[in-house]
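Lecture 7, part 2: worked example. A protein chain together with uridine-5'-diphosphate-glucuronic acid.
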Amino acid sequence: MRIAMIGTGYVGLVSGACFSDFGHEVVCVDKDARKIELLHQNIMPIYEPGLAELVASNVKARRLSFTTDLAAGIKDADAIFIAVGTPSRRGDGHADLSYVFAAAREIAENLTGSSVIVTKSTVPVGTGDEVERILAEVAPNSGAKVVSNPEFLREGAAIEDFKRPDRVVVGTNDEGAREVMRAIYRPLSLNQNAPVLFTGRRTSELIKYAANAFLAVKITFINEIADLCEAVGADVQEVSRGIGMDNRIGGKFLHAGPGYGGSCFPKDTLALLKTAADHETPQRIVEATVQVNDTRKRAMGRKVIKAMGGDAHGKTVAVLGLTFKPNTDDMRDAPSLSVIAALQDAGATVRAYDPEGVEQAKPMLSGVAFCDSPYVAAQDADALVIVTEWDEFRALDLKRMAATLKTPLLVDLRNIYPPAEAKRAGLTLVGVGKPK
Ligand code: UGA
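Predicted complex, written out as structure tokens:
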């Protein structure tokens, strides 16, 4: 199959590289000439484990290429994927679809055959209809079909998620288009037995939002249960295990923590609420989730202050982990931003360490001292706070930490460390949803 991928952002680049690794011939197109130039030099515009190697090997095999020339890129393509950004529109929370529509128009203007046009970007219900309208207006005789094919990739595990998905969702009622999509995903059905779920286009668009909203609800639910655990002397990790062993609930996404962040859950839950409001069908559970999560992030800063005795003035706090989760350099809506703001507002000085996120974090965090290692950050600090569970924080030398800190206090917002281990090292440990 010949595939064109419009947009070499996170989703486009990972999907393009993985499709080429399946054996398809893939051309990735982006307007940003600098990005394409860097990709030609095998320099990735994003941090994703394994991506540079995957890109390099498929470029070498001549199955993957990059261009700024959309017309050349889509020529003779069996499928043209739109994987451009859909940021939250400033002011109203709606997904900004201007990049999607601009791409659709440009594709329509340059279509040479009856390709299948696939939206991979996360787009509100009905966007496929609009893309189809643009197509009908600009290229009325093209015979091209518009399909929805949402992605379910987690940052940091995107290649694994792409190659070993729980399911692939394809939204179109057109049999010819389904055949093309079946052929594109055939390597997955053959090797992994991954089910391809065919639905209508609007249903497929909604599945994406419903999936992310449900996961956000699940995390927020366990976070509130964690608060209750602290109040009644129960252990949230055991509660998670105990409820998760029920297959109807499932054990994943039940890790209590400082609240969800990232580029997907916050944006997609808001966009779902906007769609719901437009159709006068309120989604109250999702509304509550968004609200609870927003307050939680700052509340985690107050939790640290409480652990330090209730006063942060003149104190120094060492923060480990700034990105919204490990294995990414993404700082969007990261809980660390709110935790640090709460600490600084209360008069604390913050020293921080992150393995990959510092460059992205610097412009977002003023007054923070960025350090080269967890131990440098902890030097003479009144508390050590783990905000993001990078692997390198799982094997800290806790004895050395206890000796480095001014006050041997560890606030572990990801529950990495068992209390006994911290105690042995001489640290006072405060976790999330743990009995005192
Ligand atoms: C999420 C979804 O998991 C993907 O399936 C989806 O494709 C993607 O959004 C998207 O829409 O593009 P991602 O945002 O990369 O992926 O990261 P997750 O691993 O889902 O984590 C999101 C946030 O939830 C992080 O801040 C993480 O720390 C938090 N989280 C996750 C918890 O606090 N507890 C958990 O048990 C799981």
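The chain is about 45% helix and 15% strand. The mean pLDDT is 96. Keep this in mind for problem set question 3.
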